[in-house]
Structures are given as structure tokens and as C-alpha cells.
Amino acid sequence: MLKDITIGQFFPGNSVLHRMDARFKIIITALFIAMLFSANTIIGLVPGIVFMAVCYALSKIPFRLMLKSLKPIIPIIIFTSFLNIFFLDGVVLFRIGFVKVTYDGIMYTVMMMLRIAALIAGSSLLTYTSSPISLTDAVESLLSPLKKLRFPVHELSMMMSIALRFIPTLIEETDKIMSAQKARGADMESGGLLHRAKALVPILIPLFVSAFSRAMELALAMECRCYQGGEGRTRLKELHSKGADYIGLAIALLFLDATVLVDLLL
Amino acid sequence: MPIVKTENLTYTYGLGTPFEKTAVKDVNIAVDEGELCGIIGHTGSGKSTLIQHLNGLIKPTSGSVFIDGQNIWEKGVKIRDIRFKVGLVFQYPEYQIFEDTVFKDIAFGPKNMGLSEDEVSRRVKDSAEIVGLKPETLHKSPFELSGGQKRRVAIAGVMAMEPKVLILDEPVAGLDPKGREKILAQIKRYRDEKNATVLLISHSMEDVARFTTKILVMENGGVFCYDTPPKVFGRAAELAAMGLAVPQITRVINRLKSAGIDIEGDIYTTDYAVKKISEYLARK
Amino acid sequence: MENIIEIKDVSFRYQNGEEDSANVLEHINLNIKKGEFAAVLGHNGSGKSTLAKLCNAILTPSSGVVLSYGFDTSDENNLFDIRKKIGMVFQNPDNQLVATVVEEDVAFGLENIGVPTEEMRVRVDEALKAVDMYDYREHAPHKLSGGQKQRVAIAGIIAMKPECIVLDEPTAMLDPRGRTEVMNTIRMLNRDYGITIVLITHYMEEAAEADRIIVIDGGRVLLDGKPESVFSKVALLKSVGLDVPQVTDLMYRLKELGLPAHTHIITEEAAFDLLYKLLKK
Questions:
Q1: So what's the ipTM on this one?
Q2: Which of the residues A144, A160, B119, C191 has an alpha carbon 20 to 30 A from that of B245?
Q3: Which residues, 6+ apart, have CB-to-CB distance to B266 below 8 Å?
Q4: CA distance A23 to chain C (A)
């Protein structure tokens, strides 16, 4: 069940988006988020959503995967729409008992839903098309000016990359420990909140113990491979920006302008 | 009546996704009470998936599982009760230990069964004794013990539920010869004392040959054969073609046989080989 | 032949206060020669892993001296030099892979020592081809089998071009297929690349493939010699909880019955020849 989560996964490929410099992809994703949040109306969201749709088409990532990435956030969407529909003032459409449903409420709700969905789908595309290592390298490169301020940029990106490496391993381990405790009669599906919290202890403790021992062993293995921090390191893959990357950035900026323009005109 | 039975058991992972894979297909087995059954096969042959069906951790995609004649997915059957009846020890079980004393950790299963404190205590002591843990060890922290001892604590934790069927996934993986020998003997003792049935997955043909009464060979998610050790190792050539090693002794004796020396019987342990070779020499 | 690792009168005890401070190793004297394939055999807790960790200065002796390629392992200034020459492979394949892509992991050590990018590319590819994992260079390590992961770990070591590799129970967590893959790789490194191998194991089948077996028990060297002569001490090995190959055991038992068998036999081939002569006629 834990294996079904697709957010943060990487799907190797050779599309234009896959080949793009990860630093540019991060900046473009930031611009995309700016598009979504600078729009105040549903029509204002259109340029952002069109931009995302074009990107998905270019990436050759199946549409199905995008829908799957949205699945975990459905509860959040339902919850916020519920609040918005019933508690926003405006032109009243109809009433159920003492609650009223307004035109503005519905419009705002639809916009929020679209915005959240586009946000998740769009930012998922970043991880779908970029290997984790290129992302951490990009973050390191983008943050490198901070090195002058003694900010531990290399250490941060190394931690990110190790975390990404071990997430699948720990997820597998969690599944295994859960099964082992269920086989000993652990009951995780019933009871109140307190009971359920308590039922997590037999899973969390073994998981922590194992994570710590893995960390110790990994540190040892890294030392044996002459790891000494960021000083004097070279890279197998260096990030290179190409002409296409700048074109991509320019297109994203155009769409952002369009968003702002649409909002101003309406 | 067999104590463990499956009918056309099939399980497919990730149904409807690109990662769809049938791990177990159309498995029909019937294990009789008291049997000590070894399960062999490659990684990916479906062994681990199969055993997780037997205590209801996995629900079959199609087909059924019967424990003691009871269809475990029938309406009204509490799956937790099945898990107490069919104890499952995972591979490297020491990673499931979480309590601060050995006693409490072994007691986790029996407590979940809702037994009285006296009964829990009796079972903990009983199973600790079977796996050779000294009474004073019960009050220690399990995290201070050696790897081999932790393994035995984890196995005792399942034995303490006194399941009628005890299933173990590679219980001796990674242990040295002495440690392997001890744990195998303790499993056998559990089966003898509690009149239980044991199923165990192993990669060691030598262990399986010496230790079991029946062998289940899995291949590509299906059953290749289920028979007594002499019958199974009698098919040495087929096993080798599958990439499963037969015991070294069997290979040597089989070569002698094909070189024209007619030693009787299907030989798969050193003891038996010594006996048959001396008999052969005596005959002449 | 030249000694590359010299262990001189080394004792070792772990120092973590409350633990009983008994010596794990007691006055060990041992030399590893250039180009040899040595197996260190012992049961769990015999001190064999400690011995491995002394070779590349993960641990330093409580008394005595370890010289690796002439460098004293107790001197911290020598760490880098020693570790560039002696690579180490550990038991759990998951806990030694750092990167999320196979080739990036193989490059990790090279990145650490500052190898230029173009040269790194060449060495990474060569190392991956050597362990037959080149086709998997863009895969994620967690999707590989245990044997494949361990081969990637080995590739990461050989990319550094070490002269010696110490492997601490590299097959203990693998299935038979993975064990065969890893053992084939180890043998190939020794034979084709001339890399000195120190293999820590408790599997006697694996030790039987080495040129030399060192049996450790109770922190001391119990036996040291060619596999044939070490395994011929059947009773001694069994008394310290170790096994011998099934055919050696068979010979031992036949010999006890007064038959003309001898215990220098450790392979199927030799056992067949002897039995055939014995049983023919």
C-alpha cells in the first residue's frame, strides 16, 4: 500500500524535459507556482494550466500517472471545498437549512480545487522528469552563493541525496515490520486514537533501531571510500545549461506575463 | 485431513498497473499434521508470497486457503485468530524486536491473544527454554544480545503463541554452522513437544535434506513437486536444470552411479552415504 | 613474496566502558602477501570481522602494530593513503550504496578523491563492465537483487583502483544465486586484475575456493594453510563449530571405518575419483 505513492518518484526517459538542466526546471517550477498564485480568477488560471499541459505532453509522462499523483490530496481538496462552499458570502443561490450556498462560494471553490490540483500535478512533473541526484545537485548549485555565508550547502545536498536513496529501502522495511507484528497479532486497524497511536510503537521502535544501524554502517562505508566532505570533490555529471534551457525559461516567463495580463484585463 | 491446504491459490501484485506480476499461480498443496516441510526454490519463485497467504497476511486474488479444514476468508472467520493458529517467522526476524526486556518482547504475541498473565508467563518461559535462552536473559534488554541470540528471541516470540502450524522464512540465514544447527534442532523440538506442523523456507539443500520429512519445490510461482526428500533429490538432474543445487554428496553418488557403480537408494545425507558405501563394500 | 599487510602481535578490545573488556583478538601475528586470495574463516564472534577492520584502519590495535603497505594504521595521517590502496566491502549491500543511481554510486569514491570528470567517466564504465553491471548503470540501487547490489558495491571499490580488497562476509545476506555471482566476481578480480583478496566468511564452500585459509577462533589463529590441509583437520574444525565440505566429511567418516580414504579431499571431482577407485571391481 505504501508503494502506491508516486509523488517524488522519478520516471527515466529521454524527452526534452528529461534532458533539461535541473536548475532551470526548478526555476521554471517556481515560476509556474507564481502563475497559479497570481491568478485571482478561474480564467487567470488558464495560462498556467495550458503551460502545464504542454509540459506534460512534452515529457511523455502518461496522463494516468498525473491522476495517480492527485489521489492522496483528494481528502484535502474535499475538505477545503466544503469550507469554501458553505462559508463564503456573496450572491445566494440556494439555502439548505441555515447554510447558504453562494455563487462566489462555488466559483472560489472551483478555482481553489484547480489551483491545488495544478500545483501538485505541476510540481510532480519536476520529480517525474529529474533524477533525484540531478535535483540535489541543482539545489546545491542554486544555493552555492550561500556558501560565502558559511551555510553548509554541500552537507545539505548530501543529506537530501542520502534521504532520497533510503526512502524506498525504509518504506520496504516498514511494510515488512508491519507484517511481522501483524503476524504476532498486533491490531492496527481498530480501536480509538490512543489505541492506534500505541499500536505504532512496535513498528516505530524497530524502524528507528534499524535506521540508526544503517546510518552507522553507511557512514563507515563512506569513510572507507575516502569521503571527507565537500572540499576538493569533483562530479561525475556536471550541470551544463544549453540554449534550449534558456528558451524554456523564456517560454515560462511569457506564460507568467499572460497570467498577469489576464488578471489585469478582467 | 491436511492441516494446511490451498486450492488454486493465485496472487497477482499491482493488479491493473504496469508493474503487474503474478507471484503465485494455481497452487494446490496439502500438508498433513506433524509434517516438517521444507520449501525450496529461487528468489522470486513465490515461496515468500505463498507463506504469507497461509496466515492471512495476504488475501489471494483467487483460490482459497484452508487451515484445519476452515476456509480462512469465509465470512465470520476472524483473521487474527488464524494468525495465532499459524505462526509466521519472517526472514531476519531480529529486526522486529521492540520491547525493553526479552520477556516483554516474547510476551507480545501471547498478550495480543488476550491470555491471562499466568498463562502468558508460562508460555514465555516455555518458549524461551525451547530456544535455549537462560532464565536470567529474560530480564535483559534484547538490544544488548548477540545477533544469534536476538534471532532466538524473535523465534520464541512466535513460538509463545503456540501455533499449531509454525512457518519460518529462512530461520538460519546468515548464521554460522553451529548457530544453524542449534536453531534447526530447536524448531524440531517445538514440533515434537507441541505436536505442531512446521513449514520452513531454506536455501540450504544440505539443511533441507537432513531436517525435513517433506519438500515442496516452487518454480515460477507454481509447485514443481511436493514429496519426500529421497523422491525429490532423486530428481537431481531436473533440480540442477532449474538452477537449484542438490547436496554435494548427492552429486558425487549420482556420478558414481552413472559410472556404473550401483549403490542403492537415493542418497542425500553424509550419514546415509557412509552406510550405503559400507553396505556396498560388504556385499563384495 | 612481498607482504602487503603485516599484523604484528596485535591484541584488540572494544572500549565502551560497561561492556566486558575481554580481548577480541589475542596476540595475532599474520602477514597477507601480494596477489594472494586469503579466506579468514571463523564462527560469529570469533574476532574475524575485527581482524578485517584492522586492515584498513577502521579500528586500530589496542596493542601491537598493523602495517598496511608499510603505513602504520594507528597514525591518522596515513588514513587516506591506506584507504586508497585497500578497499572494503561490507555485509549488508543496502548500507554501503550512497547514491540513487548505480553509476553515480560507483563514482562516489572517485568524486571524493577529486578525479577529473572525463577520467571518472572512463573508470566508472570500466568498473561496471568488470562486474558485469554496465547494463544497469542507470538503474536505482533499491530495485536490484542482493547479488547485483553487492557487485555495484564492488565496482565502486575497484573504480578506485585499489591493490587489495577486504570483504567482510559479503555473501552472508544473499541467496545462492547472489552468492555465486559475488564469488565469481571476487575470483575474477584476483585472477585477472591481480588484486589481493582477503575474504572474511563462515561459509566453508567459499573458503575452499581461496589459496589460503586462516581459521580464527577465540581471537587467535587456529589454523593457517592451504585449503586441503586446513580442511583435513575435520575433528578440530568441528570442535570449534565450523564445518568442512560434505565430501571431506564423508572421507573422514570412511577413514574412521578403516577404509583407505584420506581427508585431503575437498572437491567433488577428487571425491569421485577416490570413491570410484575404491568401489570399482
A1: 0.90
A2: C191
A3: B230, B231, B233, B234, B250
A4: 18
Q: What is the per-residue pLDDT across A187-231, written as a single tens digit (0 to 9) for each?
A: 877 777 788 888 889 999 999 999 999 999 999 999 999 998 877
pLDDT tens for each residue of B84-104:
999 999 999 999 999 999 999
Which residue bears the cell 515434537? B192
B43, B176, B278: residue with CB nearest C43: B176
Name the least confident of A67-81, B16-30, C99-113.
A67-81
Instruction: Answer whether B112 sits within 8 Å of A185, measured CB to CB.
Output: yes
Q: Spelled out in words, what is the top-level CATH class assigned to the domain B1-77+164-230?
A: alpha beta
Beta strand B30-31 with B4-13 is: antiparallel
Has residue C129 got a pLDDT over 90? yes
Q: Does B277 touch chain C (CB under 8 A)?
A: yes
Q: A175 contacts in B (CB within 8 Å)?
A: none
Give me the residue spans of the domains in chain B.
1-77+164-230, 95-163, 247-284
- Residue pair C45/B146 in contact (Cβ under 8 Å)? The answer is yes
**CATH number for the domain formed by residue range(s) C3-227:** 3.40.50.300
Q: To the nearest whole angstrom, how far is the Cα of C37 from the nearest Cα of chain A? A: 21
Cβ neighbourhood burial of B218 (10 Å; 0-12, 13-18, 19+): buried
Residue B195 near chain C (CB below 8 Å):
no
> Does A1 have pLDDT greater than 50?
no
Rg (chain C; Cα; Å):
20
- Residue B108: closest CA among B56, B55, B154: B154
Predicted TM-score (pTM) of the model is 0.86
Q: B240 and chain C: CB distance < 8 Å anywhere? A: no
Inter-chain contact C124–A220, Cβ cutoff 8 Å?
Answer: no
Contact A24, A248 (CB under 8 A): yes
| Residue C242 in contact with partner chain B when CB distance is under 8 A | yes
Residues of B in contact with C259 (CB under 8 A): 278, 281
Q: Give me the pLDDT at residue C71, please.
A: 94
Chains within contact range of chain C (3+ C-beta pairs < 8 Å) = A, B
Q: Which chains border B (3 or more CB–CB pairs < 8 Å)?
A: A, C
